[in-house]
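Troubleshooting: if your tokenizer reports a length mismatch, compare your output against this known-good record of 422 residues.
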Amino acid sequence: MERVQSKRFVSRLTRDTLALILAGGQGSRLKHMTRWRAKPAVPFGGKFRIIDFPLSNCMNSGIRRIGVLTQYKAHSLIQHIQKGWGFLRGEFGEFVELWPAQQRIDLSWYAGTADAIYQNLDIIRNHNPSYVVILAGDHIYKMDYGPMLAAHVERGADATVGCIDVPVGQASAFGVMSVDAEGRVTGFLEKPEKPESIPGRPGVVLASMGIYVFNPEFLYEQLIRDADTAHSAHDFGKDILPAVIGRYRIMAYPFRDPASQRQAYWRDVGTVDAYWAANMELIGVTPELNLYDQTWPIWTYQEQLPPAKFVFDDEGRRGMAVDSMVSGGDIISGALVRHSLLFSNVHVDSYSTVQDSVILPNVGIGQRCRLTRVVVDKGCRIPDGMVIGEDPVQDAQRFFVTSGGVVLVTPEMLGQELHYAR
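Known-good structure output:
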């Protein structure tokens, strides 16, 4: 196994790999946040979009041939990728290509994750990759795909599935695997209600991350077989993997922190509560996701904006932010921002208080407002004197209140019909 540790060996593998990022999902559990955008286009972490994380993982891993498969309300996602990810050099065989649903095979749109890949088989074959990495475009994590590719090759796998440990109570949101001592996948259940725990580890299951490495010919064969199968949902978790386990060499690759070998950071921000919590984690002194890590930068399109500004220093009218993250173009004018995350171009006016909240770009908050445990979507204008997050009954009449008590506010809820891709 010494070759797995060889950087040159890994770099050869990543150079010859094609990454396909599935970015067409609606993300309906994020409610109104995905009314005008696909889930991978949802802003995250003060200046990024969710799609930036798998794209940055590819860049940092040395994978420079990438196809992004889009479908649902993809305009803002396409704009973001065109603006921020056009720096690769085609002369060197590097690219980030946008593959919209375009009915290449028949008159249907993408019917599932496997069908999305199947409908682009001619493009994939034209790129002639040595390996294909399939990634979800809607998760937050930092991962070097090189060691996973190396393990795939060393173990002679037909396909390798990235996996994490999750509590049994959360298993119904994942594909759950069982493996033998070698790490070969022996069983796969898509979103089971009552799965069995990992032997010797009660209360924990092994869950698929939606990350796969395939040998190309094996992938083509399975996609064509699935396309010809009646009543298939054409999904990797529901159809492709269950059909090949036991017949082919399907290996599991546990996602571990390289230094500690413990479970690495990975978040599915698929609900408003999970989205709010993942952003709030970043405000901590030493968050598990380190956005300041210069060895593994997260790349994105970055607007040219002036620095954040804090104005007025009068008693009761002091512009300040405490235990918070603020972004370029923000103006905190005689207001208090406490334990909150503000994206770019957020203006908070005098005598207002923002606490435990996530404020997306281009939001204006008027005077004498109080916002607590709120997610404010892009472009909102909060009128003077508005109080949100203190009266759940009143909030539920105007906005969306989650089971965890987080209030989601969008322009439409405020009567501000913006009608543009956000």
